[in-house]
């Protein structure tokens, strides 16, 4: 009876701890639009409301749009897209709504035609054009229209994402974005840098984008490179300590939406991170976790940045490092009963949990992914090496008495006791609910892997392989998948 009362009390405590509330999830909002024109207008309305000056670029002039962000920042102006031949209806309405008095058109007449300029003038708006024979010259001519800069940013002219990633910081520093090519340093950059007495240069991208020879010709250069565009964007946020109190997120290949995101991030002096349209990349997750970012604004519609990404951003597990330890393995079969080998069951469940957590946005590591064996010390060391936020060891129970059954979770008080208890109390009821097994509660025990792991750690006993009741449940792929979902949900609950 005492055991039943204790279990009931623990269950009630767990319920109060893990019941999610909307305020406990990360905050995610979205600025979208039916096309690039309406999207850029909606970003302008959100960030500016009204704007005396607007920067206008052609619908596919991504290089122009990116280079224009620092100039736009100095004019407190949003960047809008237009159809090249006719002023887009959405942009026309946007100019009126923003109460624009001046438009700075960027690019040649092939990007923004004279017909578009005339249509803007008919709205009673003054216009000027910054042009050039190519993107390199245009970027330099934009720089000439800015306040005298102390430094410049150099990127490869076709690597749009590199320019987008640095644009919010470049704008705030007053650094123009100048384009070079993969062959070497463009003469336009050399001429501008010399004439402007540039003191500092930021180069974005590795040597395959901006060559070593080009780099060495620049004034006090600093190079930021990474494994990919997502990594570079994350490194920029980290290196320059950009504010993540409300982080903007744009698609890494969304060249029509990303300049607008960079513009509003610059205006609000916030960080900008890049994502794949379908799932958050590892590097983006990593900085979200390391910076504990919890508020995001996604720029782009659900085709550009899917709702899956938005859901990952909203989940408090996003960017958290979870270490999963499937107990036993190889020659160590663990408990055996009713055709179940614990080592195989543990691995199957852990793999399912791994998938669920990765899909939720977590960064996961497993002590083993096949039928191999690690010592207890090695498992603990692997968890430490992974710099994990939490450690979860997956097991199944056994007893000489076949009537023994149920699910229980253990933690140890040696390290991180309070958070280990919290983790256990979040996961335990979720497992019980998923399996429909007897709730044996949360308990303490000095199991090696949770005793010596210094991060919050728990050991899960999912059920008894020696029980005819539990073993039938644990044999079911459906129930194992439900169990994995329950564990994943419990982990999310812990981070709320």
Outline the secondary-structure elements.
Layout: H1 2-18, E1 27-31, H2 36-47, E2 53-58, H3 62-74, E3 79-82, H4 89-98, E4 102-106, H5 114-121, E5 126-130, H6 135-144, E6 151-156, H7 160-173, E7 177-180, H8 187-196, E8 200-204, H9 212-216, E9 221-224, H10 229-239, E10 243-251, H11 258-267, E11 270-275, H12 282-291, E12 295-299, H13 307-314, E13 321-326, E14 336-337, E15 340-341, H14 342-360, E16 363-366, H15 376-385, E17 390-397, E18 407-411, H16 417-435, E19 439-444, H17 448-451, E20 457-464, H18 468-475, H19 477-495
Parallel strand pairs: 1-12, 2-3, 2-4, 4-5, 6-7, 6-8, 8-9, 10-11, 10-12, 13-16, 13-17, 17-20, 18-19
Antiparallel strand pairs: 14-15, 18-20
Helix pairs in contact: 1-16, 2-4, 2-11, 3-6, 3-7, 3-11, 7-10, 7-11, 10-12, 14-19, 16-19
């Amino acid at each position: 009876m005492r055991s039943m009362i204790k279990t009931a009390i623990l269950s009630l405590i767990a319920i109060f701890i893990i019941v999610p509330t909307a305020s406990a999830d990360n905050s995610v909002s979205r600025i979208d639009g039916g096309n690039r024109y309406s999207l850029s207008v909606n970003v302008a309305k959100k960030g500016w409301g009204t704007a005396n000056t607007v920067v206008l670029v052609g619908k596919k002039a991504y290089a122009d749009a990116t280079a224009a962000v620092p100039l736009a920042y100095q004019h407190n102006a949003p960047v809008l897209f237009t159809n090249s031949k006719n002023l887009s209806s959405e942009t026309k309405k946007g100019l009126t709504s923003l109460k624009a008095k001046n438009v700075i058109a960027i690019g040649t007449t092939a990007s923004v035609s004279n017909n578009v300029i005339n249509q803007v003038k008919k709205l009673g708006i003054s216009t000027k054009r910054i042009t050039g024979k190519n993107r390199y010259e245009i970027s330099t001519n934009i720089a000439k229209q800015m306040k005298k800069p102390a430094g410049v940013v150099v990127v490869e002219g076709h690597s749009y994402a590199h320019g987008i990633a640095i644009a919010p910081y470049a704008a705030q520093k007053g650094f123009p974005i100048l384009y070079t090519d993969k062959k070497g340093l463009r003469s336009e950059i050399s001429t501008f840098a010399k004439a402007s007495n540039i003191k500092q240069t930021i180069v974005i991208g590795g040597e395959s984008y901006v060559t070593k020879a080009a780099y060495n010709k620049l004034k006090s250069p600093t190079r930021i490179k990474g494994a990919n565009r997502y990594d570079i964007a994350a490194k920029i946020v980290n290196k320059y300590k950009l504010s993540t109190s409300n982080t903007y997120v744009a698609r890494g290949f969304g060249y029509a939406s990303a300049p607008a995101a960079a513009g509003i991030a610059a205006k609000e002096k916030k960080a900008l991170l890049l994502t794949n349209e379908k799932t958050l990349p590892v590097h983006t997750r990593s900085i979200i976790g390391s910076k504990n970012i919890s508020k995001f604004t996604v720029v782009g519609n659900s085709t550009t940045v899917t709702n899956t990404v938005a859901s990952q951003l909203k989940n408090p597990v996003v960017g958290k490092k979870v270490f999963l330890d499937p107990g036993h393995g190889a020659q160590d079969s663990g408990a055996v009963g009713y055709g179940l080998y614990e080592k195989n069951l543990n691995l199957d469940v852990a793999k399912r949990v791994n998938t669920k957590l990765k899909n939720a946005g977590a960064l996961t590591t497993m002590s083993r992914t096949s039928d191999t064996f690690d010592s207890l010390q090695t498992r603990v060391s692997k968890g430490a090496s992974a710099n994990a936020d939490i450690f979860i060891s997956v097991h199944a129970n056994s007893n000489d008495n076949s009537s023994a059954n149920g699910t229980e979770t253990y933690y140890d008080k040696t390290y991180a006791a309070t958070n280990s208890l919290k983790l256990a109390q979040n996961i335990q009821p979720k497992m019980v609910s998923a399996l429909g097994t007897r709730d044996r509660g949360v308990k303490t025990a000095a199991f090696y892997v949770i005793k010596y792991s210094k991060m919050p750690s728990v050991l899960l006993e999912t059920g008894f392989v020696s029980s005819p009741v539990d073993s039938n449940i644990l044999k079911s792929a459906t129930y194992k998948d439900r169990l994995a979902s329950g564990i994943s949900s419990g982990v999310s609950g812990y981070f709320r």
